[in-house]
Design the sequence.
């Protein structure tokens, strides 16, 4: 395989032991302009996923040699390539676990090929946006937390946080609206790039992971508050003991 697969739309690696599904996905995404490679062995899939040759990995949870979660864990130790997980099991825990381990999105089987296409486009759009270098001064600082859009880094006090692409975009969206509630529908559309479904809890899982990483404010209060039945709010500095005139600026 060439070091770089030429495709205007994107280069996709599918890791799934179902040969028929691999053919279906390859044929469908190929017709949409993507360059698609498929593998059915976990070990080979990991090697290719971390090679840097691909823009997206589509990974099945139910693999015979090594389950998809372990494959994802090994990929994440060496690569930040976006991963879309496929799961045939209806258990929400599978989906939550995948997102917690760094998957960018999940899609339950059986799925509509148009839904697959929409998820792929949304993930690649986020990844392409993340690769755009913006001016270093483009940043948001609220209290002891600073988000730098140019370098796509988050600093909380003296600590540099390690966020996924989705978590970074989610935090940026919440910070830009600090002090105001942002609905789940709006977050799903702005951050995940798709329409909201009442049965889709992925945005809540991403918020949970984000909360865990940014922690509480210095006084112990929550930075990100859940507004029941509506959405989420990033609390303004004066709500947790900062002088807003000094620390609450949005640049």
Sequence:
């Amino acid at each position: 395989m060439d070091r770089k697969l030429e495709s205007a739309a994107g280069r996709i690696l599918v890791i799934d032991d179902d040969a028929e599904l691999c053919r279906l996905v390859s044929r469908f995404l190929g017709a949409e302009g993507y360059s698609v490679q498929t593998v059915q062995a976990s070990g080979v899939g990991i090697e290719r996923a971390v090679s840097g040759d691909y823009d997206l990995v589509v990974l099945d949870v139910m693999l015979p040699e090594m389950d998809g979660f372990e494959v994802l864990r090994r990929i994440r130790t060496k690569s930040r390539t976006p991963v879309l997980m496929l799961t045939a099991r209806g258990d929400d825990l599978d989906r939550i676990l995948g997102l917690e381990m760094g998957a960018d999105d999940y899609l339950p089987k059986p799925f509509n090929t148009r839904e697959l296409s929409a998820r792929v486009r949304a993930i690649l759009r986020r990844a392409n946006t993340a690769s755009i270098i913006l001016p270093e001064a483009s940043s948001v600082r609220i209290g002891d937390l600073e988000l730098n859009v140019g370098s796509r880094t988050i600093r909380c006090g003296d600590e540099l946080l390690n966020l996924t692409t989705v978590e970074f975009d989610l935090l940026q969206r919440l910070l830009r609206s600090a002090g105001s509630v942002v609905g789940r529908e709006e977050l799903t559309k702005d951050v995940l790039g798709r329409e909201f479904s009442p049965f889709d809890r992925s945005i809540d899982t991403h918020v949970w992971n984000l909360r865990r990483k940014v922690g509480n404010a210095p006084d112990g209060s929550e930075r990100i508050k859940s507004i029941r039945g509506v959405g989420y709010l990033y609390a303004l500095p004066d709500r947790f003991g900062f002088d807003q005139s000094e620390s609450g600026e949005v640049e």
Summary: The first strand starts at residue 11 and ends at 15. DSSP finds nine helices and twelve strands in the chain. The chain has two domains: 11-130, 139-247. Confidence is low (pLDDT under 50) at residues 1-6, 239-251.
